[in-house]
Amino acid sequence: MRLLVSRAQTARVSTILREEFGAEFRENDAPMGVAEARAALAEYDALLPTLGDAFVAEAFAGPVRAKLLANFGVGVNHIDLQAARAAGVNVTNTPGAVTDATADIAMTLLLMSARRASEGERMLRAGDWSGWAPTQMLGAHVTGKRLGIIGMGRIGQAVARRAHFGFGMEIAYATRSPKDLPFTARPLPLPDVLAWADFVVLAVPATAETRNMIGAAELAAMRPHAHLINVARGDVVDEVALITALEAGQIGGAGLDVYAQEPLVPEALRRLNNVTLLPHLGTATEEVRDAMGMMAIENLRAFRDGKALPNPV
Ligand code: NAP
């Protein structure tokens, strides 16, 4: 079985992929372009791709030898699932392994945005801190506030648990189907969540339905002091509308881990003080990247052994 791995992996995962599968690794860590994805589909039996690798419809248009894309990550918006299916290529992902780490980054962003942590650190590093003062850099209090979660799946629920049990926050959520949750949380339509919340966390997958689901109208529906936190995908938010809202001080602030055209982050966004910007750190710990790799490996093993795939998408 010929296996191509699109990016460097942790030591543990690389060793297994090489020793057990004789995997070949691409030499650079940049995303695969369409031509490269197309060639790989023609030459390999299985691929281990990830975020940003261009498995768009065009990549499946040529001859396809591959039978499996064992994606590294839960988000599969870089793969045209319909085109993959039509070409007879199975797709698997790594759900669960990413949940807690991504929820931790959502809380990091929520706290940083509320408490102006990035802005304060920039001020201190610039040598502009004049010392503690009762009215200096006042941010938003978090404990006991209202949290709106958009997309109450694995990550949404992990954020809700942290916010409810750790910070005594009230929770409301908008999702496709109401959930049976071990804490009080109200299912509401999206506009009602936006109009109610002090903090809004986005945790939906990037799909045709969620594309730009937060645009100018949704930002206008938010309370003027509310903060928007996005750990989902960049294209869930209309980035231009968000910049306009932040420039006008229409919402309290934003905390972003993901962007519409990564790694490009608009200069207008980077100039603003009321936004906290992280470089897609959601799952970036060694344990989690090991766990994601091991999950992809379990899917490869099942494929090799002709068994049912554990995590089909
Ligand atoms: P999940 O368990 O499938 O949860 C997604 C939730 O979104 C589900 O509850 C789903 O509703 C809801 N949803 C889907 N479409 C919707 C729509 N149109 N309107 C309202 N709700 C909708 O997925 P997850 O594991 O929590 O991951 C969510 C996303 O986070 C991933 O797809 C990925 O893009 C992103 N992510 C980012 C990072 C990072 O590094 N920042 C890391 C991991 C994942 P139902 O339950 O009713 O189906």
From TrEMBL:
Sequence ranges assigned to domain D-isomer specific 2-hydroxyacid dehydrogenase NAD-binding in this UniProt record: 107-282
SUPFAM superfamilies, sorted: Formate/glycerate dehydrogenase catalytic domain-like, NAD(P)-binding Rossmann-fold domains
Domain of life: Bacteria
Coiled-coil intervals, chain numbering: none
InterPro entries the UniProt entry points to: D-isomer_2-hydroxyacid_DH, D-isomer_2_OHA_DH_cat_dom, D-isomer_DH_NAD-bd, NAD(P)-bd_dom_sf
Key words, A-Z: NAD, Oxidoreductase
Any one GO cellular component localisation term in the record: cytosol
Domain D-isomer specific 2-hydroxyacid dehydrogenase catalytic: 16-313
Any one GO molecular function term: glyoxylate reductase (NADPH) activity
Protein family per UniProt: Belongs to the D-isomer specific 2-hydroxyacid dehydrogenase family.
The name this protein goes by in its record: Lactate dehydrogenase
